[in-house]
Specification:
This protein is α+β, with helices and mostly antiparallel strands. The chain folds into 3 domains: about 5-100, Acyl-CoA dehydrogenase/oxidase, N-terminal domain (Butyryl-Coa Dehydrogenase, subunit A, domain 1); about 125-225, Butyryl-CoA Dehydrogenase, subunit A, domain 2 (Beta Barrel), CATH 2.40.110.10; about 235-380, Up-down Bundle (Butyryl-CoA Dehydrogenase, subunit A, domain 3), CATH 1.20.140.10. Helices cover about 45% and strands about 15% of the residues. It has helices at about 5-25, 40-50, 70-80, 105-120, 235-270, 280-310, 315-340, 350-360, 370-380; strands at about 30-35, 35, 125, 145, 150-160, 170-175, 185-190, 195-200, 210-220, 270, 275. The strands form 4 sheets. Strands 4-5-9-8 form a 4-stranded antiparallel beta sheet, with no helix packed on it. It has a 3-stranded mixed beta sheet with strand order 3-6-7. Strands 1-2 form a two-stranded antiparallel ribbon. The longest helix is centred in the middle third of the chain and has 37 residues, at about 235-270. The protein starts with 6 loop residues before the first helix and ends with a helix. About 40% of the residues are buried. The site of flavin-adenine dinucleotide (FAD) has 20 residues, from β3, β5 and α9.
């Protein structure tokens, strides 16, 4: 058993850390306008990411990407999460996000959707959640009925990130209500300008994100836009969400690490009742607990990534990594914010932003209750 990161990943981690420390952190409180990176920073940092070989980080080499394994990607995501310089959801600085489902497209579909997205000319949103189907996507009602070579789509999708800025939606639809999530859900790529598609609401959230509601009313989608086979959509989407859960895990590590850095520095310099806070046991224990929990989370996340790279099924490891790292990072932010007293509540430090962002992650892309529910299923099966 070797717990060390391979040498090339240690170097990658150091390179990204230097960039984050020297470029991102010094600008982190002014680089974004709302939840969008300002154009001057985007241009500068995307160029840097290209120079560091991080462009198209997510994409295999055969498509011109960096071709990194999952462990390598997580190491990069972890380092980027040490700062609030970049939007916490949406586009980073390593090129367009290519959702794994796009690799399931056939050659003709790749020409229409994949390559324009890869070149940054078009954008894609992921539309699964509905007003009555969030944690339980199997209960979705958006229906696609086939008429010859067209699907007629009717339904409502809610809380869809960047739907208002996307050219296409990766839309999850019910094609066979009797089968539901067991072969009755399919994935269509829908042109957002199609007749019958309208954005009917934008929700303001405490994180600043404004996910949208999309209504589909007798919207005609060519059968040629079906991803994979009919009924395969749920399985394909779950595969992508699995990787997303590991990304959540990596984010939790980066956030917690920087919080411990900030908390330790502040505790050493802040004097109350004649002594630095760092000499008070009440403060030391907050830092010690955070350090222990970060270590445990890192072992979990790296192990899941390593297993993924061996081609093994990591569904359970991904559930555990997301659950533990999301909760851990929120606890650490909370403790470190407390160490900072009043200044922790100001917008001069990244803590307040993380407090809200990490809180939101206990709900999005798989709420913690749902993670526990699926882990419990595994436990009940494993032990008699
Ligand atoms: C900012 C933001 C961006 C989003 N972006 C997207 C996107 O791009 N695409 C997309 O498809 N969706 C997106 N979502 C939707 C998000 O994934 C859902 O909000 C999330 O899955 C939870 O679903 P829900 O809101 O319907 O809550 P519900 O499913 O109604 O759950 C409510 C609460 O009950 C708990 N709960 C549910 N079932 C159980 C159970 N069996 N046992 C115990 N507790 C349970 C949940 O954990 C939660 O705490 C986004 C949401 C937000 C807020």
């Amino acid at each position: 058993m070797d717990f060390n990161l391979p040498e090339e990943l240690q170097m990658l981690k150091q390179t990204v850390r230097r960039f984050v420390d020297q470029e991102l952190i010094p600008n982190e409180m002014q680089s974004c306008e709302g939840n969008e990176l300002k154009p001057e920073f985007r241009e500068r940092w995307e160029k840097k990411a290209q120079d560091m070989g991080l462009w198209l980080l997510d994409v295999p080499e055969e498509y011109g990407g960096a071709g990194l394994g999952v462990l390598a990607k997580l190491v990069v995501w972890e380092e980027f999460a040490r700062t609030v310089a970049l939007p916490s959801r949406g586009e980073g600085i390593t090129g367009p996000e290519i959702r794994p489902i796009l690799y399931a497209l056939n050659d003709e579909q790749k020409q229409r959707f994949f390559y324009p997205i890869l070149r940054g000319e078009k954008r894609l949103c992921f539309a699964q959640t509905e007003p009555d189907a969030g944690s339980d996507p199997g209960s979705m009602k958006t229906r696609a009925v086939r008429r010859g070579d067209t699907y007629i789509v009717n339904g409502v999708k809610r809380f869809i990130t960047a739907a208002d800025r996307s050219d296409f939606a990766q839309l999850m639809v019910l094609t066979d209500p009797a089968k539901g999530s067991h072969g009755g859900i399919s994935c269509l790529i829908v042109d957002m300008k199609s007749p019958g598609v309208s954005i009917t609401a934008k929700y303001k959230t405490i994180m600043g994100d404004e996910p949208c509601e999309i209504v589909f009313e007798d919207c005609k989608v060519p059968v040629a836009n079906l991803v994979g086979k009919e009924g395969e959509g749920f399985k394909l989407a779950q595969k992508w969400l699995g990787l997303g859960r590991l990304k959540h895990g990596a984010r939790g590590l980066g956030v917690a690490e920087r919080c411990i850095e900030l908390g330790t520095r502040y505790a050493k310099q802040r004097v109350t009742f004649g002594k630095p806070l760092s000499e008070r046991q009440a403060i030391q224990w907050k830092l010690a607990d955070s350090f222990v929990e970060l270590h445990a989370a890192r072992l979990m996340v790296y192990h899941a990534a390593w297993k993924y790279d061996q081609g093994e099924d990591v569904r359970n490891e991904a559930y555990m990594a997301k659950l533990y790292a999301d909760e851990m990072s929120f606890r650490v932010v909370d403790r470190v914010l407390q160490i900072h007293g009043g200044i922790g509540l100001t917008l001069d430090l990244p803590l307040a932003k993380w407090f809200v962002d990490q809180r939101s992650r206990l709900i999005t892309e798989g709420a913690v209750e749902v993670m526990r529910m699926v882990i419990a299923r595994h436990v009940l099966k494993q032990y008699n």
